[in-house]
Amino acid sequence: MNYMKAVEYDKLPSKFRKASPLEEIRNSDNYVAQPKYDGVYCQISLPDGAVLSRTDEVLHSVPHCVEALRKFIPPGYVVVAEIWHPTWDHSQINGAARRHKPQGDLVCVVHDIIPQSRETPEPYISRYTTLMRLFHWNGTVERPGLLLAESRNACFGAKIKDGLLDAPGAYDGVMYKAKYEGYTPGLVKRGELIKDKFKLSLDLRVTGCDIRNGEKTGRPVYVLHVEYRGVTTQVGSGVPHTLDPEAVIGKIVEVESLGVFKSGLLREPRFKAFRFDKEEPDT
After folding, report:
1. Is 94 in a helix, a strand, or coil?
2. Out of 43, 193, 226, 227, which could bridge 6 as a Cys pair, Cβ 3.0 to 4.6 Å?
3. How far lies 279's CA from each of 165, 172, 177, 223, in Å?
4. Closest-CA residue to 180 (of 191, 172, 167, 164)
5. Three-state SS sequence of 8-23
6. DSSP secondary structure code for residue 120 in this structure
7. What is the sign of the dihedral through the CA atoms of 236, 237, 241 and 243?
8. Which is nearest to 52 in space by CA: 103, 108, 104, 91?
């Protein structure tokens, strides 16, 4: 793993969570908040221009972004970015990012700059300040397809979650970055990079139920069909293995997801509970 892997707060070590409650982080002077752009993570190595995914897949879709970076980022750096589009669903962005030809509609949101070694003790706030200086040092240099990630005080995260930015549908959460931590590849353990994802909880009516064989266990698993605003989403995650498939039809269940795609489908839906106290679904 040649990148620093962000984690959700509740997956950080318990010792850290006990010393640093999430609400304190959300208002801490030791963190900055950035929108979590719902795109495809990449590292762009300069000067060779190689664009690599998390799994070291070479991406060929954003040469226009690489050329723009070369105009003002000195050789020897690796730019950490997100391949993104402000109005596309993640599935559209992901498909375009992995095509083997240029996709001029895509942009790269730049949010870090690190050495070729992919490791540095230099604090994030210093690295981000370097990015700001490089981005703005020469106002005559064009930067087609590039954006500098918006970074503000940690309390700014509340505005992101409340959808108060220009393109709320294009974000799927908030990233909290520790100002004074360096960059070390691997899973973070000291809260250097924290994901705070949006979660949408809906009470929906079950319109169908499939029984399938589990890919890992081979035992029967249940997939519920739920309807939200006229669109049916299949929910398999979290569904109990001890339910009566026929009895659940028409029941109201609580489903948690990471939002709604433009298609109307729920993003990463998960069954939470039966809502026997409700007779009508959310609309």
Report:
1. helix
2. 193
3. 35, 30, 43, 21
4. 191
5. EHHHCCHHHHHHCCHH
6. B
7. negative
8. 108
Instruction: Collect all residues with Cβ–Cβ distance below 8 Å to 133 and sequence separation of at least 6.
Output: none
Q: What is the pLDDT tens value at each position of the chain, 283 positions in all?
A: 789 999 888 889 999 999 999 889 988 999 999 988 888 999 999 989 999 998 899 999 999 999 999 999 988 899 999 999 988 877 789 899 999 999 999 999 999 999 999 999 999 999 999 999 998 876 666 788 999 998 888 876 666 665 544 444 556 788 999 999 999 999 898 999 998 877 778 899 999 998 887 666 667 788 999 999 999 999 988 888 888 888 889 999 989 887 788 788 998 898 988 887 778 888 7
> Is the CA virtual torsion 4, 6, 9, 12 positive or negative?
negative
91 sits in which H/E element: helix 90-97
User: Which string of b and e fits 17-54 if b means at least 16 CB within 10 Å?
Assistant: eeebeeeebbebebbbbbbbbbbbbbbbbbeeeebbbe
